[in-house]
Amino acid sequence: MIRSQVRRALLLFAVIGLSPSLGAAVQAPPAIAAPSLAPADWDAQVKLKEAVDHNPDPRIVEIDIVARVADVDIAPGKRVKAWTYDGGLPGPLIRVHVGDRLIVHFTNQLPQETTIHWHGVRVPITMDGVPGISQDEVEQGKSFTYDFTVPDAGLYWYHPHVQSAAQVGFGLYGALLVEDPAEATTVGVPDEVTLVLSDIGFDDAGTLDDPDNGDSTGMVFGREGTYVLVNGKTRPTLRARSGAPQRWRVVNAAKSRFFVLNMDGFVFTIIGSDGGLQESATTTEQVLITPGERVDLIVTPTGAPGTELVVRSMLHNRGYGSFFRNVEDVLAVRISDDPPAPKVALPKVTRTIMAPPIAGATHVPMALTLPPIDWKGHNEFQVNGVPFWKSTPYLAKIGETQIWVVKNDTDWDHPFHLHGFFFIPLDEHDQPIHPMGWKDTVNIPQRTTARLLVQFNERPGTWMFHCHILDHAEGGLMGHVQVGPVAAEHMHLEEPKPR
Ligand SMILES: [Cu+2]
Q1: CA of 12 to the centre of ligand 1 (A)
Q2: CA distances (Å), origin 82, targets 76, 79, 89, 111
Q3: Which of 10, 164, 293, 347 has the fewest CB within 10 Å, making it most exposed?
Q4: pTM of the predicted model as reported, rounded to 2 decimal places
Q5: Cα–chain-centroid distance for residue 167?
Q6: Is residue 153 domain-shared with residue 201, that is, in the same domain?
Q7: Is the same domain home to 140 and 86?
C-alpha cells in the first residue's frame, strides 16, 4: 500500500506447502513440437533481456535484481531518468518452469523504500510484498530475499507495492513467465513473444511527470504517460512470415492505461488469461486488457512482403467517455520477404477447469463508491463506505468458498485485483461465465456488478484487493481479506500523505 507503514508484526502463519494444481492442460499432445516458421530475428526489436539464473539445480531459478534509477532510451532522442529493475524498462524477464522454486535476491538502490509484489502468483503471505502486512518495506540500500514455488503456468508480473502509482509509473515492472513445457505441443505455436504494455510520462529534460498531477481529479481520471510502450519501446516492429502463427503473451503493466488491441481487423484467438490457459479458445478482433490483466493470444499475420500491419489501442469508455484519451499506435508487424508459410493446423487448445463449489458459498457484498467531493474539493474512493485507511478486514475461513458481489456504483471502470487467489467470474445467476479461466484481475465496468467465485483453501494471511488503476487504489479503492484465524490486532493502513 502503497503507503502503509508497519505498526505491529502481524504474521502468525508463514509456512505454506505446495498447493494442489489448479488443473493442467489436457489436450493430448502431438508427438513433436512444431518448428519455427518466423523470419530470423523476427522479435529482435522487442526481445526482453532475461534474468540470469545462477543456481545449477535445474528446478531452482536463483537471480539477483537491483532496483535503481537509470537513464533509459525509449526512442531515438527520447531518454528518461526512469526507476528500473536492473537498469531496464521493463525489468528483466524471469523465465521459470511450473513447479520451480524461484529465489530472488532483491536490493533497493532507489531513493525511496520499496517492495516487490508477485502479481497473480499463489505465493505464501510472507512473499506477497505488501508492507505492513506481509513484510517490512525494503529501505534504501537494503536487501530482501523472495523465495517461493511457482505452482501455476501462465504469465505473471512483478512490481512494487509501495507508492505503487508513482513507482510503477516511473518504470518499476517486469514479466514473470511460468512455462509449461507441454504447451510446446498442446498450443503448438513455436514462435512466442512476451509483450509488456505500459506507458511513461516525462519532459524534454527526461524528468518524470509528477505522479500527483491534477490532484484528486487526476487520481479519479487515472494518470497516463504520454509515451505508449511495448517492452520499453515506442511503436517497435515485429517481423512476421505471412501465414505463420505467432503466440503473444501480453501483460498490461501500465498504472492506469487501458489497452484495446486491434491489428487492422485481424482475428486474435484468445487461449488464456491471468492464470494460464482457459477452458476453450475464443476469437475477437479487439482485445481489452485492463491494468494488471494478462492475455495469451495467437495471431496469424498475412500480407504481401513489406506490408506493415499496425496494432493500435482503440478508444474505450472507462468513465465519462474517453476524454483526454486517443487511439494510439502500439506495435507494427512487418511481413517479411519469405514465401508464405504452409497452412498450419493448430491444436484446439482446451483445459479442464474445476470451479470451486458454488452451492453453499458465502455471498460477500461490496460496493465501490465515489462520494461527492468534500469541502476541501477532495475525491476519495470507498469500499462499503470507507477508504482503505479506515477499513477493517473482510473475513474468510480456511476452506471457505465465497462469492464476492462487487457493485461498481461509480461512473468509472475498475480493474479489480485480488492478491494470492484466483477467482472465476460468475453471471447474475451465480453460474460460471464460459469459457472459464482463472482470473486475478477483472474489469468491473461503471455501474455494473461483478460476481467473483473464490475459494480460500490455503495460505492463511491478510491479502489485499484493490483497483489496479493504481491512482484509484491510492485514492482509497483498496481493502483486505483475512484468510484464516483473525489476528489479535489488525494492521494499520495509513492514509497516503502528500509527497
Ligand atoms: Cu478503479
Answers
A1: 31
A2: 16, 9, 8, 12
A3: 347
A4: 0.92
A5: 15
A6: no
A7: yes
